[in-house]
């Protein structure tokens, strides 16, 4: 099936002749596009599309002209924007924030305006990849850490060290603690104050609200994070089956903070994603943590993991949604356990006066689920900060998709029947469940349907899987949400990386990759490519509509469109859709999330041993990650236009508009992740077997920088993750 403009517009709920999506009221709609001045016509693009690494239909070139234009291509180690646009670097790794510093690998961004063009910018800091962080640390920070000594010790210890079990006073434990402390300081959340000065550029105002919430907040400074909901009963429970951290309902820090959301009442949600990298993810039958020894410390050129080990962090306190009020300098975050513990990506918020509050989030793992929290009480005023209290009581649901485009929300509660996802139903043929030996705890991987039948005979309901009184059991289910959802038969999906709610309640979900992996794989009946392919790498965007538009509805309808891929196959010219943003006219802005190891990977032939390469093996065609604009009104509706390409080895994340839509905030994450610090402007020429938009194959010579020097862009300077503000030069 070829995907075209009309397919996409019908998917969005419009047609080529309509003026807009119909998502916005007449008061909210404007007659001009982002960046454009109010006098601009509605069907005029606000920029000239940039050139990407492959031919696109929007250029209107003949196949011969495409070959001539694209037989060579040079990748640029910069944030490449259309002519007439520029960016200000607002904040970079190592810059001062409050009494700490800007963290590493910034992700979700939120700008809560206190007055026009002034307010609080909140940023997540997601993760650290060993090589580039270690290579740059001493240059950026002006001090050194014992990397080589600890790497050597780790290498001699079969790849990892249980620093938690080392005696206090052990020199190696002290060295590991020093590295882990700095690494966790570089993760979490940051708040800074900004204003647009004299209509010329953005600047920091360094208010008293500026602060960092790090991975070790509370460890030494007393700035613990708070917790709410049934998980608190587990945290405070005596005589746990597993590990006791002695902190009760308090939590030390937040880390692996990926996407998020901004509430109508002015708070920001931060999603803790891959916390299993730093602490154990599986838990005991009562929801208590496994010992920190189960996630030992690891340091190599590629990995930095197990940083919670040396501090004895309890794994069940990470993997939550954290709420922060940027305007309150004493607020260091609250983890709301009713929203579930899993590898959170994004928070879609629906707050309507008189209705129950609904929050949507995805679990970004291969085979992860889509979830919805619904509050018990109703919203009175969507802008009232008292709405945060609604998160303390409600229910968490998982989405069950039927192949016919219908679906329903299944509550994750004690009396939910055990009806496990079958291995035969998912790509890759593997599903993880809570270990049937409940005294041992943890999880097991199931590869045969027969094993699921035995599991179902042993446990009738989710309540049978967990131990404690009713509140403690509910808390344990929420703590173990992903594995409980597998046991309840919640549909396994294709890495849901963004959940965005349009004003009419339509939910858009970006599913980034359909390949299976070590955590599982997506449902075979739901997640197929445009020609029925399984393991479709290029990704999808799903539209989900609740029954009768009710946020608390238990039934929904869904439709899905494969958008990624090469134009010759009906794709829009990009791969792996990630963060989504709608502007006030309903136009879609989207960034991509291609795996760094595949960026610009040479493809000299499209076949290997007589077989066509898989979609994943063709990722190198698409060059660097990018930002795209898809108008949904006017003569250009339904066409994808590239607006930006990222620096080397990086990912563009967290696009967020100012209210006047004259500035787009954007985070540039992990520049130089593969190549490290670019030395002496080094480049390499690679070959790519491209195709024209009508499928004619030709060879491209591509000049590729080796590593990155962004944002300084001076030879031999360290790459630094940073936040930028994009605007027109005039």
TrEMBL record:
InterPro entries xref list: PhoX (IPR008557), TAT_signal (IPR006311)
Recorded superkingdom: Bacteria
Entry protein name: DUF839 domain-containing protein
Provenance organism: Lusitaniella coriacea LEGE 07157
Phylogenetic classification of the source organism: Bacteria, Bacillati, Cyanobacteriota, Cyanophyceae, Spirulinales
